[in-house]
Amino acid sequence: MADIIKLLPDAVANQIAAGEVVQRPASAVKELLENAIDAGATSISLSIKDAGKTLIQVIDNGQGMSETDARLSFERHATSKIKTADDLFNLHTKGFRGEALASIAAIAHVELKTKKENADLGSKIIIEGSEIKEQEACSCAKGTTFSIKNLFYNVPARRNFLKSNSVESKHIIDEFLRVALIHHDIAFSMYNDGNEVFNLNSGSFRQRIVAIFGDKYNTKLVPVTEQTDIVTIEGFVTKPEFAKKTRGEQYFFVNNRFIKNAYLNHAVQNAFDQLLNKEQFPSYFLNLTVDPSKIDINIHPTKTEIKFEDERSIYAIIRTAVKQALGKFNISPTLDFEQEKSFDIPLSKYKEEVKIPTIRVNPNFNPFEKEKQTFSPSQKTINKNATNWENLYDNFEENTTAIIDAQLNTTENEHTEKTEQLFAANWDDETEVKTKTVIQIHQKFILTQLNNNHLFIDQQRAHERILFEKFLTHLENGNGHSQQLLFPETIELSNSDAELIREIEPDIKKLGFNFNAIGRTAFIINGVPVELSNQPIQHSFENLLEQFKHHQSELKLAQKERIALAMAKSAGIKSGQMLTQEEMLHLVEQLFACQMPYSLPNGKPTIISLDIENLNQQFNY
Q: Cβ atoms within 10 A of the Cβ of 286, count?
Protein backbone atom coordinates (compact mmCIF):
# COMPACT_ATOMS: atom_id res chain seq x y z
CA MET A 1 0.00 0.00 0.00
CA ALA A 2 1.39 3.40 -0.98
CA ASP A 3 2.29 5.96 1.66
CA ILE A 4 -0.32 8.70 2.08
CA ILE A 5 1.43 11.22 4.38
CA LYS A 6 3.52 13.82 2.60
CA LEU A 7 5.23 17.04 3.55
CA LEU A 8 3.44 20.20 2.46
CA PRO A 9 5.29 22.59 0.14
CA ASP A 10 6.53 25.73 1.87
CA ALA A 11 4.14 27.94 -0.08
CA VAL A 12 1.12 25.92 1.09
CA ALA A 13 2.40 25.72 4.67
CA ASN A 14 2.85 29.50 4.71
CA GLN A 15 -0.69 30.04 3.45
CA ILE A 16 -2.03 27.82 6.22
CA ALA A 17 0.02 29.73 8.81
CA ALA A 18 -1.23 32.97 7.32
CA GLY A 19 -4.77 31.92 8.20
CA GLU A 20 -3.81 32.12 11.88
CA VAL A 21 -1.51 35.12 11.79
CA VAL A 22 -3.21 37.33 9.18
CA GLN A 23 -6.95 37.17 9.62
CA ARG A 24 -7.62 40.60 8.08
CA PRO A 25 -5.61 43.70 7.02
CA ALA A 26 -5.50 44.88 10.63
CA SER A 27 -3.53 41.73 11.56
CA ALA A 28 -0.80 42.59 9.08
CA VAL A 29 -0.71 46.18 10.35
CA LYS A 30 -0.18 44.93 13.90
CA GLU A 31 2.73 42.68 12.90
CA LEU A 32 4.50 45.41 10.91
CA LEU A 33 4.11 48.03 13.65
CA GLU A 34 5.48 45.66 16.28
CA ASN A 35 8.46 44.82 14.07
CA ALA A 36 9.20 48.53 13.69
CA ILE A 37 9.11 48.99 17.47
CA ASP A 38 11.43 46.02 18.02
CA ALA A 39 13.82 47.62 15.51
CA GLY A 40 14.23 50.60 17.86
CA ALA A 41 12.35 53.13 15.72
CA THR A 42 11.58 56.58 17.14
CA SER A 43 9.22 57.52 14.29
CA ILE A 44 6.73 55.21 12.56
CA SER A 45 4.36 56.05 9.71
CA LEU A 46 1.42 53.90 8.55
CA SER A 47 -0.35 54.40 5.21
CA ILE A 48 -3.29 52.34 3.94
CA LYS A 49 -5.43 52.36 0.81
CA ASP A 50 -8.83 50.73 0.41
CA ALA A 51 -8.75 49.73 4.08
CA GLY A 52 -5.49 47.83 3.55
CA LYS A 53 -6.79 45.66 0.70
CA THR A 54 -4.77 47.56 -1.92
CA LEU A 55 -1.85 48.85 0.16
CA ILE A 56 -0.41 48.69 3.67
CA GLN A 57 2.85 50.56 4.09
CA VAL A 58 4.87 51.00 7.28
CA ILE A 59 7.94 53.25 7.31
CA ASP A 60 10.26 53.39 10.31
CA ASN A 61 13.66 54.86 11.16
CA GLY A 62 14.85 51.82 13.11
CA GLN A 63 18.16 50.04 12.85
CA GLY A 64 17.36 48.39 9.51
CA MET A 65 18.65 45.05 8.21
CA SER A 66 21.60 43.80 6.23
CA GLU A 67 21.15 42.09 2.86
CA THR A 68 21.34 38.63 4.42
CA ASP A 69 18.96 39.49 7.27
CA ALA A 70 16.46 40.97 4.84
CA ARG A 71 16.39 37.72 2.87
CA LEU A 72 16.19 35.49 5.95
CA SER A 73 13.37 37.51 7.53
CA PHE A 74 10.89 35.90 5.11
CA GLU A 75 11.83 32.36 6.08
CA ARG A 76 9.53 30.52 8.47
CA HIS A 77 10.68 30.53 12.10
CA ALA A 78 13.50 32.95 11.30
CA THR A 79 13.81 35.44 14.16
CA SER A 80 16.35 37.61 15.93
CA LYS A 81 14.36 37.66 19.18
CA ILE A 82 15.12 34.23 20.67
CA LYS A 83 17.92 31.68 20.44
CA THR A 84 16.98 29.00 22.99
CA ALA A 85 13.76 27.73 24.56
CA ASP A 86 14.69 29.50 27.79
CA ASP A 87 14.36 32.83 25.98
CA LEU A 88 10.61 32.26 25.75
CA PHE A 89 10.42 33.03 29.46
CA ASN A 90 12.44 36.22 29.26
CA LEU A 91 10.81 38.08 26.39
CA HIS A 92 11.06 41.85 26.13
CA THR A 93 10.13 42.18 22.46
CA LYS A 94 6.86 41.99 20.47
CA GLY A 95 7.28 39.33 17.80
CA PHE A 96 9.44 36.29 18.41
CA ARG A 97 8.10 33.27 16.50
CA GLY A 98 9.27 34.33 13.03
CA GLU A 99 6.01 33.54 11.26
CA ALA A 100 4.59 36.97 10.47
CA LEU A 101 6.62 38.03 7.42
CA ALA A 102 6.60 34.54 5.90
CA SER A 103 2.81 34.35 6.31
CA ILE A 104 2.25 37.83 4.85
CA ALA A 105 4.52 37.12 1.87
CA ALA A 106 2.50 33.98 1.11
CA ILE A 107 -0.77 35.85 0.50
CA ALA A 108 0.31 39.24 -0.92
CA HIS A 109 2.74 41.16 -3.09
CA VAL A 110 5.44 42.38 -0.74
CA GLU A 111 8.16 44.98 -1.25
CA LEU A 112 10.86 45.53 1.37
CA LYS A 113 13.43 48.32 1.43
CA THR A 114 15.87 48.44 4.33
CA LYS A 115 19.25 49.91 5.22
CA LYS A 116 21.44 49.92 8.28
CA GLU A 117 22.71 53.26 9.56
CA ASN A 118 26.37 52.91 8.49
CA ALA A 119 25.69 51.09 5.20
CA ASP A 120 26.21 52.84 1.87
CA LEU A 121 23.33 51.06 0.16
CA GLY A 122 20.25 49.27 1.29
CA SER A 123 18.48 46.14 0.08
CA LYS A 124 15.29 45.78 -1.93
CA ILE A 125 13.28 42.55 -2.07
CA ILE A 126 10.05 41.88 -3.98
CA ILE A 127 8.09 38.72 -3.17
CA GLU A 128 4.81 37.43 -4.64
CA GLY A 129 3.14 34.43 -3.02
CA SER A 130 6.32 33.31 -1.18
CA GLU A 131 8.28 33.48 -4.45
CA ILE A 132 11.16 35.96 -4.62
CA LYS A 133 10.82 37.99 -7.80
CA GLU A 134 13.60 40.49 -7.25
CA GLN A 135 16.47 41.19 -4.85
CA GLU A 136 18.94 43.98 -5.41
CA ALA A 137 20.81 46.82 -3.78
CA CYS A 138 19.03 50.18 -3.65
CA SER A 139 19.39 53.69 -2.32
CA CYS A 140 17.08 54.37 0.62
CA ALA A 141 16.98 56.06 4.01
CA LYS A 142 18.05 54.41 7.24
CA GLY A 143 15.38 52.08 8.57
CA THR A 144 12.80 49.90 6.86
CA THR A 145 9.94 50.49 4.44
CA PHE A 146 7.55 47.55 4.21
CA SER A 147 4.78 47.61 1.57
CA ILE A 148 2.02 45.00 1.30
CA LYS A 149 -0.02 45.15 -1.90
CA ASN A 150 -3.08 43.18 -3.00
CA LEU A 151 -3.61 41.32 0.26
CA PHE A 152 -5.23 37.87 -0.19
CA TYR A 153 -4.83 38.12 -3.96
CA ASN A 154 -4.25 34.36 -4.21
CA VAL A 155 -6.81 33.42 -1.54
CA PRO A 156 -10.03 34.84 -3.02
CA ALA A 157 -12.25 33.15 -0.43
CA ARG A 158 -10.51 35.07 2.38
CA ARG A 159 -10.73 38.33 0.44
CA ASN A 160 -14.45 37.87 -0.19
CA PHE A 161 -15.08 37.48 3.53
CA LEU A 162 -13.60 40.89 4.35
CA LYS A 163 -16.07 43.55 5.48
CA SER A 164 -16.66 47.00 4.01
CA ASN A 165 -13.81 49.51 3.85
CA SER A 166 -15.18 51.49 6.79
CA VAL A 167 -15.34 48.39 8.99
CA GLU A 168 -11.86 47.18 8.03
CA SER A 169 -10.47 50.70 8.49
CA LYS A 170 -11.91 50.78 12.00
CA HIS A 171 -10.16 47.49 12.83
CA ILE A 172 -6.88 48.95 11.54
CA ILE A 173 -7.34 52.07 13.66
CA ASP A 174 -7.99 49.87 16.70
CA GLU A 175 -4.73 47.98 16.16
CA PHE A 176 -2.86 51.23 15.52
CA LEU A 177 -4.15 52.74 18.77
CA ARG A 178 -3.25 49.65 20.80
CA VAL A 179 0.35 50.04 19.71
CA ALA A 180 0.56 53.84 19.70
CA LEU A 181 -1.04 54.31 23.14
CA ILE A 182 1.52 52.44 25.18
CA HIS A 183 4.57 53.45 23.11
CA HIS A 184 4.10 57.15 23.79
CA ASP A 185 7.84 57.77 23.49
CA ILE A 186 7.60 57.04 19.74
CA ALA A 187 6.12 59.45 17.19
CA PHE A 188 3.33 57.87 15.13
CA SER A 189 1.40 59.00 12.08
CA MET A 190 -1.33 57.35 10.03
CA TYR A 191 -2.80 58.09 6.61
CA ASN A 192 -5.94 56.59 5.13
CA ASP A 193 -6.31 57.00 1.34
CA GLY A 194 -3.94 59.95 1.48
CA ASN A 195 -5.78 61.71 4.34
CA GLU A 196 -4.02 62.21 7.65
CA VAL A 197 -5.83 60.40 10.46
CA PHE A 198 -3.27 60.68 13.29
CA ASN A 199 -0.14 62.71 13.84
CA LEU A 200 1.13 61.88 17.31
CA ASN A 201 4.26 63.43 18.79
CA SER A 202 6.29 61.63 21.44
CA GLY A 203 5.41 62.55 25.01
CA SER A 204 4.01 61.20 28.29
CA PHE A 205 1.32 58.55 28.62
CA ARG A 206 -1.24 61.20 29.57
CA GLN A 207 -0.32 63.38 26.61
CA ARG A 208 -0.70 60.43 24.25
CA ILE A 209 -4.18 59.62 25.60
CA VAL A 210 -5.29 63.24 25.23
CA ALA A 211 -3.79 63.47 21.73
CA ILE A 212 -5.75 60.42 20.59
CA PHE A 213 -9.09 60.86 22.34
CA GLY A 214 -9.31 64.64 22.52
CA ASP A 215 -8.55 67.49 24.92
CA LYS A 216 -11.70 66.77 26.96
CA TYR A 217 -10.00 63.63 28.28
CA ASN A 218 -7.48 65.69 30.21
CA THR A 219 -10.09 66.43 32.92
CA LYS A 220 -11.50 62.89 32.93
CA LEU A 221 -8.33 60.99 33.87
CA VAL A 222 -7.43 59.81 37.36
CA PRO A 223 -3.81 58.56 37.70
CA VAL A 224 -3.28 55.06 39.10
CA THR A 225 0.13 54.00 40.44
CA GLU A 226 1.12 51.00 42.54
CA GLN A 227 4.43 49.20 42.98
CA THR A 228 4.71 45.75 44.54
CA ASP A 229 7.02 42.77 44.27
CA ILE A 230 4.45 41.01 42.07
CA VAL A 231 3.38 43.77 39.68
CA THR A 232 3.88 47.47 39.04
CA ILE A 233 0.83 49.38 37.82
CA GLU A 234 0.89 52.70 36.00
CA GLY A 235 -1.87 54.37 34.05
CA PHE A 236 -5.22 56.08 34.32
CA VAL A 237 -8.90 55.43 34.88
CA THR A 238 -11.70 57.84 34.05
CA LYS A 239 -13.96 59.43 36.63
CA PRO A 240 -17.27 57.63 37.30
CA GLU A 241 -19.39 60.41 35.80
CA PHE A 242 -17.77 59.74 32.42
CA ALA A 243 -18.62 56.03 32.35
CA LYS A 244 -20.14 54.68 29.13
CA LYS A 245 -22.51 51.95 28.08
CA THR A 246 -19.83 50.25 25.99
CA ARG A 247 -16.42 48.77 26.77
CA GLY A 248 -14.75 50.71 23.98
CA GLU A 249 -11.92 52.59 25.69
CA GLN A 250 -10.57 49.88 27.97
CA TYR A 251 -6.87 49.08 27.53
CA PHE A 252 -4.76 46.62 29.49
CA PHE A 253 -1.04 46.38 28.70
CA VAL A 254 1.41 43.90 30.16
CA ASN A 255 5.06 44.82 29.66
CA ASN A 256 3.97 47.32 26.98
CA ARG A 257 1.95 44.68 25.11
CA PHE A 258 -1.83 45.03 24.64
CA ILE A 259 -3.80 42.11 26.12
CA LYS A 260 -7.40 41.04 26.62
CA ASN A 261 -8.28 39.62 30.02
CA ALA A 262 -11.86 39.45 31.31
CA TYR A 263 -10.67 38.52 34.82
CA LEU A 264 -8.55 41.65 35.24
CA ASN A 265 -11.27 43.74 33.63
CA HIS A 266 -13.58 42.55 36.41
CA ALA A 267 -11.05 43.81 38.96
CA VAL A 268 -11.32 47.35 37.60
CA GLN A 269 -15.10 47.11 37.33
CA ASN A 270 -15.25 45.86 40.91
CA ALA A 271 -13.21 48.84 42.10
CA PHE A 272 -16.02 51.09 40.85
CA ASP A 273 -18.55 49.16 42.94
CA GLN A 274 -21.40 51.40 44.21
CA LEU A 275 -20.17 54.18 41.91
CA LEU A 276 -21.61 52.77 38.67
CA ASN A 277 -24.65 50.72 37.80
CA LYS A 278 -24.44 47.40 35.98
CA GLU A 279 -24.94 48.95 32.54
CA GLN A 280 -22.03 51.40 32.86
CA PHE A 281 -18.38 50.71 32.15
CA PRO A 282 -15.39 52.88 33.10
CA SER A 283 -12.61 53.63 30.66
CA TYR A 284 -9.07 52.76 31.71
CA PHE A 285 -5.52 52.72 30.37
CA LEU A 286 -3.38 50.52 32.62
CA ASN A 287 0.11 49.16 32.03
CA LEU A 288 1.26 46.25 34.19
CA THR A 289 4.95 45.49 34.53
CA VAL A 290 5.48 41.85 35.47
CA ASP A 291 8.58 39.65 35.57
CA PRO A 292 8.59 37.93 32.12
CA SER A 293 9.35 34.60 33.79
CA LYS A 294 6.01 34.85 35.66
CA ILE A 295 3.85 35.03 32.52
CA ASP A 296 3.30 33.00 29.35
CA ILE A 297 2.40 34.99 26.24
CA ASN A 298 2.83 32.17 23.73
CA ILE A 299 -0.70 30.79 24.08
CA HIS A 300 -2.44 32.58 21.21
CA PRO A 301 -1.40 33.37 17.60
CA THR A 302 -2.10 37.09 18.05
CA LYS A 303 -0.41 37.14 21.48
CA THR A 304 -3.31 39.12 22.99
CA GLU A 305 -3.93 36.53 25.71
CA ILE A 306 -1.53 35.92 28.58
CA LYS A 307 -1.32 33.41 31.40
CA PHE A 308 -0.20 34.75 34.79
CA GLU A 309 1.52 32.67 37.42
CA ASP A 310 -0.28 34.49 40.27
CA GLU A 311 -3.41 35.93 38.68
CA ARG A 312 -5.43 36.20 41.89
CA SER A 313 -2.84 38.41 43.58
CA ILE A 314 -2.66 40.67 40.52
CA TYR A 315 -6.46 40.92 40.57
CA ALA A 316 -6.44 42.08 44.20
CA ILE A 317 -3.62 44.59 43.59
CA ILE A 318 -5.39 46.14 40.58
CA ARG A 319 -8.66 46.44 42.47
CA THR A 320 -6.96 48.05 45.47
CA ALA A 321 -4.87 50.43 43.34
CA VAL A 322 -7.90 51.72 41.45
CA LYS A 323 -9.95 52.15 44.64
CA GLN A 324 -7.09 54.05 46.25
CA ALA A 325 -6.80 56.32 43.21
CA LEU A 326 -10.52 57.10 43.27
CA GLY A 327 -10.42 57.77 47.00
CA LYS A 328 -7.23 59.85 46.86
CA PHE A 329 -8.80 62.27 44.42
CA ASN A 330 -12.04 62.44 46.43
CA ILE A 331 -14.03 60.66 43.76
CA SER A 332 -15.32 57.90 46.01
CA PRO A 333 -16.35 58.27 49.68
CA THR A 334 -13.57 57.25 52.03
CA LEU A 335 -12.91 57.04 55.74
CA ASP A 336 -9.82 58.62 57.23
CA PHE A 337 -8.58 56.03 59.69
CA GLU A 338 -5.59 58.14 60.66
CA GLN A 339 -7.62 60.63 62.66
CA GLU A 340 -10.90 60.38 64.52
CA LYS A 341 -12.58 63.73 65.19
CA SER A 342 -14.13 62.61 68.46
CA PHE A 343 -10.63 62.17 69.92
CA ASP A 344 -9.44 65.65 69.00
CA ILE A 345 -8.10 67.37 72.14
CA PRO A 346 -7.75 71.16 71.90
CA LEU A 347 -4.43 72.60 72.92
CA SER A 348 -4.45 74.47 76.24
CA LYS A 349 -3.63 78.14 76.34
CA TYR A 350 -0.31 79.32 77.68
CA LYS A 351 -0.16 79.24 81.54
CA GLU A 352 -3.82 78.23 81.74
CA GLU A 353 -4.66 75.94 84.64
CA VAL A 354 -6.10 72.58 83.82
CA LYS A 355 -9.50 72.14 85.50
CA ILE A 356 -10.48 68.77 86.81
CA PRO A 357 -13.86 67.77 85.36
CA THR A 358 -16.66 67.55 87.93
CA ILE A 359 -19.55 65.11 88.06
CA ARG A 360 -22.93 66.28 89.32
CA VAL A 361 -25.21 63.72 90.95
CA ASN A 362 -28.80 64.15 92.15
CA PRO A 363 -28.91 62.26 95.45
CA ASN A 364 -32.74 62.32 95.53
CA PHE A 365 -33.21 60.61 92.14
CA ASN A 366 -34.99 57.25 92.35
CA PRO A 367 -35.71 55.54 89.01
CA PHE A 368 -38.20 53.16 90.66
CA GLU A 369 -40.62 55.87 91.79
CA LYS A 370 -43.04 55.80 88.79
CA GLU A 371 -45.45 58.33 90.23
CA LYS A 372 -42.72 60.99 90.04
CA GLN A 373 -41.93 60.37 86.34
CA THR A 374 -43.34 62.58 83.62
CA PHE A 375 -45.47 60.95 80.94
CA SER A 376 -46.71 62.15 77.59
CA PRO A 377 -50.49 61.93 76.93
CA SER A 378 -50.02 58.85 74.79
CA GLN A 379 -47.95 57.18 77.47
CA LYS A 380 -50.67 57.91 80.05
CA THR A 381 -53.27 56.30 77.80
CA ILE A 382 -51.15 53.21 77.38
CA ASN A 383 -50.57 53.02 81.13
CA LYS A 384 -54.30 53.38 81.79
CA ASN A 385 -55.29 50.67 79.33
CA ALA A 386 -52.62 48.37 80.66
CA THR A 387 -54.50 48.02 83.98
CA ASN A 388 -57.69 46.66 82.41
CA TRP A 389 -56.57 45.34 79.04
CA GLU A 390 -59.03 42.42 79.21
CA ASN A 391 -61.94 44.82 78.51
CA LEU A 392 -60.47 45.77 75.12
CA TYR A 393 -61.78 42.50 73.63
CA ASP A 394 -65.35 42.74 74.90
CA ASN A 395 -67.78 42.28 71.97
CA PHE A 396 -64.77 42.16 69.60
CA GLU A 397 -66.40 39.91 67.00
CA GLU A 398 -69.68 41.87 66.90
CA ASN A 399 -67.92 45.24 66.51
CA THR A 400 -65.57 43.94 63.83
CA THR A 401 -68.40 42.44 61.77
CA ALA A 402 -70.36 45.67 61.93
CA ILE A 403 -67.41 47.74 60.74
CA ILE A 404 -66.67 45.43 57.79
CA ASP A 405 -70.33 45.34 56.71
CA ALA A 406 -70.53 49.11 56.77
CA GLN A 407 -67.39 49.50 54.64
CA LEU A 408 -68.56 46.91 52.13
CA ASN A 409 -71.97 48.56 51.73
CA THR A 410 -70.46 52.00 51.09
CA THR A 411 -67.83 50.86 48.56
CA GLU A 412 -69.54 47.95 46.80
CA ASN A 413 -71.17 50.03 44.07
CA GLU A 414 -68.04 52.09 43.46
CA HIS A 415 -65.84 48.97 43.31
CA THR A 416 -68.22 47.24 40.90
CA GLU A 417 -68.25 50.24 38.56
CA LYS A 418 -64.45 50.45 38.50
CA THR A 419 -64.07 46.72 37.91
CA GLU A 420 -66.56 46.73 35.04
CA GLN A 421 -64.84 49.73 33.49
CA LEU A 422 -61.40 48.09 33.85
CA PHE A 423 -62.46 44.87 32.18
CA ALA A 424 -64.77 46.32 29.56
CA ALA A 425 -62.32 48.39 27.52
CA ASN A 426 -60.26 46.84 24.75
CA TRP A 427 -57.12 48.47 23.34
CA ASP A 428 -58.29 47.70 19.82
CA ASP A 429 -61.42 49.80 20.36
CA GLU A 430 -60.35 53.39 19.83
CA THR A 431 -63.67 54.78 21.15
CA GLU A 432 -63.22 53.16 24.55
CA VAL A 433 -59.45 53.47 24.97
CA LYS A 434 -59.74 56.93 26.51
CA THR A 435 -61.66 55.54 29.51
CA LYS A 436 -59.10 52.84 30.23
CA THR A 437 -57.54 52.88 33.70
CA VAL A 438 -53.74 52.99 33.86
CA ILE A 439 -51.49 53.29 36.90
CA GLN A 440 -47.80 54.19 36.99
CA ILE A 441 -45.72 52.13 39.43
CA HIS A 442 -42.39 53.49 40.72
CA GLN A 443 -42.28 55.79 37.68
CA LYS A 444 -41.11 52.76 35.72
CA PHE A 445 -44.00 50.41 34.97
CA ILE A 446 -47.53 51.01 33.70
CA LEU A 447 -50.19 48.72 35.17
CA THR A 448 -53.41 48.18 33.25
CA GLN A 449 -55.93 45.44 32.62
CA LEU A 450 -57.05 43.76 29.43
CA ASN A 451 -59.93 41.33 29.78
CA ASN A 452 -58.86 38.96 32.59
CA ASN A 453 -55.16 39.79 32.38
CA HIS A 454 -53.17 42.31 34.38
CA LEU A 455 -50.52 43.90 32.14
CA PHE A 456 -47.25 45.30 33.47
CA ILE A 457 -45.67 47.47 30.77
CA ASP A 458 -42.09 48.73 30.98
CA GLN A 459 -42.52 52.35 29.92
CA GLN A 460 -38.92 52.75 28.66
CA ARG A 461 -38.88 49.54 26.62
CA ALA A 462 -42.39 50.21 25.30
CA HIS A 463 -41.38 53.62 23.97
CA GLU A 464 -38.18 52.16 22.51
CA ARG A 465 -40.24 49.54 20.66
CA ILE A 466 -42.53 52.26 19.26
CA LEU A 467 -39.63 54.44 18.15
CA PHE A 468 -37.67 51.48 16.77
CA GLU A 469 -40.42 50.62 14.28
CA LYS A 470 -40.86 54.30 13.46
CA PHE A 471 -37.15 54.89 12.77
CA LEU A 472 -36.86 51.63 10.83
CA THR A 473 -39.62 52.90 8.54
CA HIS A 474 -37.74 56.18 8.12
CA LEU A 475 -34.57 54.28 7.17
CA GLU A 476 -36.39 52.19 4.60
CA ASN A 477 -38.33 55.10 3.09
CA GLY A 478 -35.86 57.94 3.79
CA ASN A 479 -38.60 60.20 5.15
CA GLY A 480 -37.32 61.15 8.59
CA HIS A 481 -38.30 64.64 9.76
CA SER A 482 -35.52 67.07 10.64
CA GLN A 483 -35.62 70.04 12.99
CA GLN A 484 -33.27 72.65 11.54
CA LEU A 485 -31.15 74.52 14.07
CA LEU A 486 -31.27 78.29 14.20
CA PHE A 487 -27.61 78.30 15.14
CA PRO A 488 -25.62 75.31 13.81
CA GLU A 489 -23.45 73.60 16.41
CA THR A 490 -19.96 72.19 15.97
CA ILE A 491 -18.98 68.99 17.81
CA GLU A 492 -15.60 67.26 18.14
CA LEU A 493 -15.37 63.46 18.18
CA SER A 494 -12.58 60.97 18.66
CA ASN A 495 -10.96 59.50 15.56
CA SER A 496 -12.67 56.14 15.94
CA ASP A 497 -16.08 57.76 16.48
CA ALA A 498 -15.50 60.01 13.45
CA GLU A 499 -14.81 56.93 11.32
CA LEU A 500 -17.96 55.30 12.67
CA ILE A 501 -20.03 58.37 11.80
CA ARG A 502 -18.74 58.25 8.23
CA GLU A 503 -19.71 54.58 8.05
CA ILE A 504 -23.35 55.12 9.09
CA GLU A 505 -23.72 58.66 7.68
CA PRO A 506 -26.13 57.77 4.82
CA ASP A 507 -28.49 55.99 7.19
CA ILE A 508 -28.58 58.48 10.05
CA LYS A 509 -29.20 61.31 7.60
CA LYS A 510 -32.37 59.47 6.56
CA LEU A 511 -33.52 59.74 10.19
CA GLY A 512 -33.30 63.54 10.15
CA PHE A 513 -29.67 64.36 11.00
CA ASN A 514 -28.20 67.09 8.83
CA PHE A 515 -24.45 67.60 9.26
CA ASN A 516 -21.20 68.15 7.38
CA ALA A 517 -17.62 67.19 8.21
CA ILE A 518 -15.15 70.01 8.82
CA GLY A 519 -11.69 68.57 9.19
CA ARG A 520 -10.79 65.11 10.37
CA THR A 521 -12.89 64.75 13.52
CA ALA A 522 -15.13 67.84 13.65
CA PHE A 523 -18.71 68.03 12.36
CA ILE A 524 -21.11 70.94 12.05
CA ILE A 525 -24.70 69.98 12.93
CA ASN A 526 -27.40 71.86 11.00
CA GLY A 527 -30.41 69.75 11.93
CA VAL A 528 -31.49 66.86 14.16
CA PRO A 529 -34.49 64.49 14.15
CA VAL A 530 -37.56 66.08 15.71
CA GLU A 531 -37.54 63.32 18.35
CA LEU A 532 -34.18 64.67 19.62
CA SER A 533 -34.91 68.38 19.24
CA ASN A 534 -35.27 68.87 23.01
CA GLN A 535 -31.94 67.23 23.87
CA PRO A 536 -28.47 68.83 23.83
CA ILE A 537 -26.90 68.31 20.40
CA GLN A 538 -23.54 67.00 21.65
CA HIS A 539 -25.26 64.60 24.03
CA SER A 540 -27.63 63.32 21.33
CA PHE A 541 -24.84 62.66 18.85
CA GLU A 542 -22.55 60.93 21.34
CA ASN A 543 -25.40 58.93 22.87
CA LEU A 544 -26.40 57.67 19.41
CA LEU A 545 -22.83 56.46 18.82
CA GLU A 546 -22.62 54.80 22.24
CA GLN A 547 -25.90 52.97 21.73
CA PHE A 548 -24.88 51.86 18.22
CA LYS A 549 -21.55 50.48 19.49
CA HIS A 550 -23.39 48.85 22.40
CA HIS A 551 -25.50 46.80 19.95
CA GLN A 552 -22.73 46.03 17.43
CA SER A 553 -22.16 42.63 19.03
CA GLU A 554 -25.74 41.58 18.27
CA LEU A 555 -24.99 39.89 14.96
CA LYS A 556 -28.62 38.95 14.32
CA LEU A 557 -29.45 42.63 13.77
CA ALA A 558 -28.68 44.30 10.46
CA GLN A 559 -26.94 47.68 10.47
CA LYS A 560 -30.18 49.57 9.83
CA GLU A 561 -31.84 47.76 12.72
CA ARG A 562 -28.92 48.60 15.02
CA ILE A 563 -29.13 52.26 13.99
CA ALA A 564 -32.90 52.32 14.54
CA LEU A 565 -32.52 50.66 17.95
CA ALA A 566 -29.72 53.06 18.92
CA MET A 567 -31.86 56.04 17.97
CA ALA A 568 -34.84 54.61 19.85
CA LYS A 569 -32.80 54.17 23.03
CA SER A 570 -31.36 57.66 22.67
CA ALA A 571 -34.72 59.39 22.10
CA GLY A 572 -37.00 57.21 24.24
CA ILE A 573 -38.42 58.12 27.62
CA LYS A 574 -36.50 56.76 30.58
CA SER A 575 -37.35 54.92 33.77
CA GLY A 576 -38.02 57.40 36.55
CA GLN A 577 -39.91 59.82 34.33
CA MET A 578 -43.38 60.79 35.60
CA LEU A 579 -46.13 60.36 33.01
CA THR A 580 -49.62 61.81 32.97
CA GLN A 581 -52.72 59.69 32.41
CA GLU A 582 -52.97 60.96 28.83
CA GLU A 583 -49.30 60.15 28.14
CA MET A 584 -49.65 56.63 29.52
CA LEU A 585 -52.83 55.98 27.55
CA HIS A 586 -51.19 57.26 24.37
CA LEU A 587 -48.08 55.13 25.02
CA VAL A 588 -50.11 51.94 25.51
CA GLU A 589 -52.23 52.69 22.46
CA GLN A 590 -49.13 53.16 20.29
CA LEU A 591 -47.47 50.03 21.68
CA PHE A 592 -50.38 47.78 20.72
CA ALA A 593 -50.36 49.34 17.26
CA CYS A 594 -46.79 48.01 16.70
CA GLN A 595 -46.13 44.96 14.58
CA MET A 596 -44.36 43.26 17.50
CA PRO A 597 -45.42 44.97 20.75
CA TYR A 598 -44.30 42.26 23.15
CA SER A 599 -40.50 42.58 23.00
CA LEU A 600 -37.55 44.61 21.77
CA PRO A 601 -35.46 43.41 18.80
CA ASN A 602 -32.89 42.00 21.22
CA GLY A 603 -35.56 39.81 22.84
CA LYS A 604 -36.11 41.76 26.05
CA PRO A 605 -39.85 41.82 26.95
CA THR A 606 -41.89 45.02 26.99
CA ILE A 607 -45.01 43.48 28.55
CA ILE A 608 -45.56 40.92 31.28
CA SER A 609 -49.05 39.46 31.61
CA LEU A 610 -50.41 38.18 34.91
CA ASP A 611 -53.84 36.52 34.86
CA ILE A 612 -56.13 35.59 37.74
CA GLU A 613 -54.74 32.04 37.84
CA ASN A 614 -51.23 33.40 38.40
CA LEU A 615 -52.51 35.55 41.26
CA ASN A 616 -54.31 32.61 42.85
CA GLN A 617 -51.09 30.60 42.71
CA GLN A 618 -49.14 33.43 44.33
CA PHE A 619 -51.66 33.52 47.20
CA ASN A 620 -51.74 29.70 47.43
CA TYR A 621 -55.45 29.44 46.61
A: 22
